[in-house]
Amino acid sequence: MSHGPLRHLISIDDLDRPGIERILDRAESFAEVSGRDIKKVPALRGRTVVNLFYESSTRTSSSFELAAKRLSADVVSVKSTGSSVDKGESLKDTVQTLSAYDPAAIVIRSPHAGAAQLVAGWTPAAVVNAGDGKHEHPTQALLDVFTLRRRIGSLEGTNIWIVGDVLHSRVARSNILAFRRMGARVTVCGPPTLLPRDIESLGCAATPSLENVHEADVVYVLRMQHERMREAFVPSMREYAARYQINDSRLRPGQLVMHPGPVNRGVELSAATIDSPQALIGDQVKAGVAVRMAVLYELLVGPQLMAVAA
Ligand code: ASP
């Protein structure tokens, strides 16, 4: 972990706590810009941001696109649906082709762990990891910390449970690191087949039982990632829901519920819980643009304080 000026955002490990706080403070100013009639600041005028999405995405791709546009950058969005893309070489070719436009930043979403790091080696542009396979999704973690900080203030001493398909989840990995760095205690919970064996090395506890979930201040629910499951990790989705679904009967009043989306309604979360006031899911989506503006700003303008110009 090196904490000089941030060149790329590949992992939450690229940021120390003051770095996370600086980005989130700046995101607060950008949230204010997003409340204006004219939602633009000139910070990246004349610069180009390339969004390269090799995997389906709604929230992440649209919010990165809006974030770059609200900073007045020129934006090129390239979408490709993984299957026909031959990892290594063709990704390199694409990055080199797009580099001809001299982008200031490349935002990359890929089904392959390590793809963002590879891209960083092929281009002089700043690289933002928008999700690489099962590895990390650092901007999701930042917007989750932003959302929680807004709701409860400091995360210091907060008890956060991350429940579900931890094995296939880049969100779990980034969020464990970010929540820990902000002073929270983290427990991951799920069927033993969906808990990676070495997960505690990230600084969290792990349990297959929801029995003590009432101790959590925040229950962060993960999507069952069918598309990444090549074998049967659970007997059936019904069985999974019976044992692990977060719903009214498992929650106590006052607990907050988060989910990175998209939600499998009625599988990992009950429909009633998704729509309940305990759920912060809508706030998480709303935080995406401001936090991604702050990340692009940090990488392309720098850590200095910003006066948000009118
Ligand atoms: N949207 C998140 C991701 O891209 C979570 C998910 O897909 O379950 O990793």
Strand residue content: 5-15%
How far is the N terminus from the C terminus?
36 Å
Structural class: alpha/beta
The residue ranges in which pLDDT falls below 50 over 5 or more consecutive positions are: none
Radius of gyration: 19 Å
Helix content: 25-40%
Largest sheet: 5 strands, parallel
What is the H/E order? HEHEHEHEHEHEEEHEHH
Trace the largest sheet across and list its strands: 7-6-5-8-9
- Give every kind of bound small molecule, once each: aspartic acid
Question: Which helices and strands, and how do they pair?
Answer:
Blueprint (H helix, E strand, L loop, with lengths): L16 H18 L13 E6 L5 H12 L3 E6 L7 H13 L5 E6 L4 H6 L5 E7 L5 H15 L6 E5 L6 H12 L3 E5 L15 E3 L10 E4 L15 H8 L11 E3 L12 H4 L6 H20 L10
Parallel strand pairs: 1-2, 1-3, 3-4, 5-6, 5-8, 6-7, 8-9
Helix pairs in contact: 1-5, 1-9, 2-9, 5-6, 5-9
The site of aspartic acid has 8 residues, from α6.
Q: What structural keywords apply?
A:
single chain, 310 residues, alpha/beta, 9 helices, 9 strands, 15% strand, binds aspartic acid
